[in-house]
Target: TrpR YerC/YecD
Amino acid sequence: MNKKLKTEAVDHLFQAILTLKSTEECYSFFEDVCTVNELLSFSQRYEVAKMLREKRTYLEIADKTGASTATISRVNRSLNYGNDGYDMVFKRLEDQAAEDNEA
Model:
């Protein structure tokens, strides 16, 4: 974890995010907290990470998401050498999908 990132204010933000209970609540909160461009950048990086995990090429990812090769490289570095945050979320989503399919 980045020690510069770990602050009381960031803790408060994350605690607030953890109270959100639906996609609609997320839209309401994040539209208030972020600019449109910030939110679109977050979502673009997430889509890039999904596509990298699917072993898509940089060209395919750039065409589909509009991300630059620099952004794709940064996301790829996070996937390979980061804090495993993407992997944690993707695993939980896969587990949730499997549970939903069993129900």
